Amino acid sequence: MVDRRDEELYGKHADELVRFATTLLGPSSAEDVVANAVVRSMTSPSWSTVVEPRAYLFRAVFNEARSVERSNRRRERREKFTADTEPTEPSTVSIEVRDAMSRLTLPQTSVLYLAYWHDQSVVEISRTLNLSRRTTERALTAARRSLEEQLS
Amino acid sequence: MTNAKWSPQIARAMHELSNAAPAAPTTTTLRDHHPLQLQQPRLMVRVAAASIAAAAIVGLVLTLQRPDASQIAAPPRPTLDLAPSTPIGVLLPDPATPGVHVVSGEAYGALDESRGAVMAPDNTVFGFVVSRPGIGEPTSGAETRIISGHGVRAIADGSAPTEIYRTINGSCATLTVTTADEAMWSDNTLALIAGMTLDGSNVSVALPAGWNDLGSSAARPQHIYELSVDSQGEPVQLFLQQMPGVPAGWFLSANETAPRAVDLDGSTAWLVDGATTPGWHSIIGERDGIGFALSGMLASDELTSIARSLRTFDASNVGYGGAVTDTVADTNPDQPTACGEPTLTVTGFAQVVPEQQRDLLSDGVVTVDEYEAAFHNFEACAREHGGYVKYSLSQFTGEFIYETSGDLLPIGDTGGGDVNKCYQAYFAQTEVLFSSTNPQVLANLDAEQIAFFNETIRPCLESAGVEVPDNLFVGSNDWIRLLEANTAVHQAGLCGGIPPDTTAP
User: Fold this and answer.
1) Which one of A7, A40, A123 has the shortest CB-CB distance to B108?
2) How many Å apart are CA A117 and CA A56, to the nearest integer?
3) I need a surface site. Which of B46, B83, B343, B351 has the fewest CB within 10 A?
């Protein structure tokens, strides 16, 4: 963050990272996820050796989202025993879409996002997210099928 | 940005979510978000006092942990020429195969990595991926162990828990060992990792006795075809990935379930099921010198039948039933570094074990008696050549703790002085196998590391203001955090510092 090159890099990719995080977890967590992922990446000792920083940042957001998703699940379990569910924030995302997206795993959502918005091939997505090729293919196939079934 | 290949349902979901995205955090916001600031507050305060009192916290962390960027020269971006100089053969189903159509095809430049697979005596398949460092693997939820000098970080695939990735990071290469349906730290895993050597970007794997090499290779340009198969009146999408000149082992490097060997017209192929996607299957094999993986939501026997129909065609002339063949450039090529291309070499047991240790290691098990005999042979050899080996026994593991009159080199390197030659001939491989498989060693390894930590690292950290829990467990989050803190303290020059690589992975 104190490095001008990092600031430029962040400025260049911030919007698409936030959109990616929003697709993975919804708008309420997106900012935090991106902020944590970017800072963790750019202060990592290995950051200066990263050869594909954009792909690295996408992967960092992906990993951060996984972590947040796990803690969200734990929190939800706790809340079931303690209090009524908190009111959800107003959202422009329809209930149908939210419900359909909630049925996808994080890798499925990530793969679909990169395929749709970035027109990335399976090879490119597997490289961006550090997933195996076949995991990526499976995730894409399953995500398409699930969304089409849920929203048709 | 988008095209007609997406259904209205998917377009709707993607656009609704994208429109809901908030504004990106500013760089000022990011400064308030430092995760390390939360994890190590006391350490940061001390370090700040000792070094740059006026520095902002984010700047301070960068000062501690980040190498000087000016030392890293940006490598030139390579150009990529995908035009083949000679016709390339590709595998496609025989045109006479009923109900099978090629929908599209893509050609890709080679990835900058090597892959391969080996099989343990109990038929467990292990895959390898050797790639360039710098692409981080998941950092949360990983378990770390030190095996035969390798810091190994292991994690289950979050999307496919049956897949376990064990990663060893070197300066020029990252080696990942993958399995499906195999315990993270099984005996097979330990024995295999014990035989690995990372030398720059080259990874060598010396197979233990009884293991089989299923083939390995550097990546080569590949073709990926999308097929449509008529299955019970419904079209089913298949992916046919293939690389000329690579063995089946290349495609066995990451799977959700253990591969099952099947006969494919006289050669061995492998069936793999999808654990997280019911109904997903793959068949992996090699035909006419072309390695391939055929995958999709189709029953194994139907996939096998289609695999049997694969024939070699000229890629430049695939006018196959009206198929569309596109050649697409790899838009994201890896950049070259001074490290060279990652390579993987697998060598069999007899080729790598010196004659003096061959009998000891032939059954893949080293007893305590065999271990001690090998060590004393090494010690005697060193003495005969004018050197010495001073030793004691670890109270925790029963291993020899020793120092020698000459440097010992990595396993397999028979250069150097006479003491190293004695070590390589009589003891090196026996020691590695014993240390990575002996139950007493494995049971007490953590205790030994904890004892070392308490004796040497704990006082240093506590004097630097780092809170250290009374009870520690190797591989826990606290353990990893404290090893990182030890690195920071050492780099900051506080309390003399304990070299961070004494116990850190």
Assistant:
1) A123
2) 18
3) B83
User: How is chain B split into domains, by residue range?
Assistant: 73-352, 353-437
CB contact under 8 A, A59 and B160: no
Give the minimum alpha-carbon distance from A95 to chain B in angstroms, rounded to a whole number.
Answer: 11
Report the half-sphere exposure of A67 (CA within 13 A, side-chain side): 17
**Would the CB atoms of B18 and A117 count as touching at under 8 Å?**
yes
pLDDT at B341 exceeding the cut of 80 = no
Total number of domains constituting chain A: 2
Joined tokens for residue B149? 């000098």
List the alpha helices (DSSP H) in B2-84: 8-19, 27-31, 35-39, 41-50, 57-65
B25 touches chain A (CB under 8 A): yes
Report the chain A residue with the minimal C-alpha distance to residue B22. Answer: A27
Are A27 and A69 part of one and the same domain?
yes
Q: Do B13 and A147 touch (CB under 8 A)?
A: yes
Chain B partners within 8 Å of A57 (Cβ): none
Q: Are residues A60 and A1 in the same domain?
A: yes
Task: Convert the pLDDT of each residue in B375-404 to its tens digit.
Answer: 999 999 999 999 999 888 888 888 888 888
Q: What is the CATH number for A1?
A: 1.10.1740
Q: How many CB atoms lie within 10 A of CB B384?
A: 10
Quick: pLDDT tens for B280-328.
889 999 998 899 999 888 999 999 999 999 988 776 555 443 333 433 3
Decide which of B474 and B385 is more confident.
B385
pLDDT, position B42: 24
CA trace torsion B134, B139, B145, B150 (10° rounding): 0
How many Cβ pairs closer than 8 A exist between chain A and B?
Answer: 220
Write down the pLDDT at residue B327: 37
Query: What tens digit of pLDDT does each residue of B82-120 get?
Result: 233 344 678 888 877 888 887 777 777 677 788 899 998
Q: Do residues A2 and B59 touch, judged by C-beta distance below 8 A?
A: yes
Radius of gyration of chain B (CA): 27
Q: Tell me the percentage of chain B whose pLDDT exceeds 70.
A: 70
A60 and A128 share a domain?
A: no
Of A63, A130, A138, the CB nearest to B274: A138
Residues of B in contact with A106 (CB under 8 A): 158-159
Selected for mutation to probe chain B from A1, A148, A152 (highest B CB count within 10 Å) is A1
Which residues constitute the domain of residue A100?
A: 93-152
Q: Of the candidates A2, A127, A150, which has its C-beta nearest B58's C-beta? A: A2
Q: What span, in angstroms and rounded, lies between the C-alpha atoms of B412 and B178?
A: 24
